[in-house]
Amino acid sequence: TRLSTGGEVLQHSPVGKEDRAAQLEATLAECDQVKAELAATKAQLSETTTKLDFARKELDAMQESLDSTSEAQEVAVQHAHLVSAQLDSMTVQLEEIKEAHEDAKQAAAKAVEDTVKLRAEVQAARDSQARAEDAWWTATEPKLDKQIGALQMQVETLRAEFLASQLVKNPGDAMTAAVMKDSPLDHERTAAGKADADRVFAWGVFYENGVNVRCAKDPAAAILGCKGAGMVVYGRQDLSWVALVGEPGFMKISNEGIPLLRKVTVYVTPCS
User: How does residue 244 score in pLDDT terms, banded at 50, 70 and 90?
Assistant: First the structure.
């Protein structure tokens, strides 16, 4: 059908059956397509409704979680306040510990100073004791030397008388007497006499348990050996010690007022 312009009479063009059938088929196809689109739209609507319900459930769960989180936040805030109070208490304790540590450091420093002073006093007391022992020995030595000399002279006299009596009884023992007179002790005494000229004296071990020989002039120094009672050593006096001659080491002259060594006079027996 066409409408004519300008108020002209409408004219109907004839339509064939084939065209109508094609139009009908196209209309039916469009209707089927619309139905399919409507079904897809319904399916999408159903899916969207399901998602919306799920979203609503998630929202409710989130709301419950938010409420629970709020309670947890309140508990956390209370715990934080408690921890803060404990931290403040620990800070106060730390300050007290620091003060106590400072007091302990000062006490330790004072103890070190007192120890140093005490060691100095002990060393001074030892030095004073050594000087007193030396003074006592110096004052007593001449008397002891006289007594020892007298006793040794008596011993030599008795020895000579004994040898003379033996020679009278057994003239054949003259060689034995000569050997006895020329004994190693006589050579030792001759060496001692020479040492006296070099300010080296003979010292007899007076202490019954013997006297240790140390590597230095220190009662705590390492021990090199020991000299038994009655042995004679040679050395130079150095305060309260004797520096040995002919062998290494030092020996204490006395200990806490107890004499350990004494100067002795060694007599040389003349050989005939």
Answer: very high
Question: Tokens in use for 76?
Answer: 């956390």
Those residues with Cβ within 8 angstroms of residue 159's Cβ, 6 or more apart along the chain or in another chain: 269
Global pTM exceeds 0.85? no
- C-alpha dihedral, 78 to 84 to 85 to 86, nearest 10°: 110
Distance separating alpha carbons of residues 108 and 110, to the nearest angstrom = 5
CA distances from 209 to 206, 222, 227, 231 (A): 9, 18, 9, 12
DSSP-assigned letters across all residues of 128-160: HHHHHHHHHHHHHHHHHHHHHHHHHHHHHHHHH
Given a contact cutoff of 8 angstroms between Cβ atoms, the answer to whether 240 and 207 are in contact is no
| Token pair in block for residue 263 | 């100067």
Q: Which among 25, 4, 252 is positioned nearest to 130, based on CA atoms?
A: 252
AA letter at 242: V
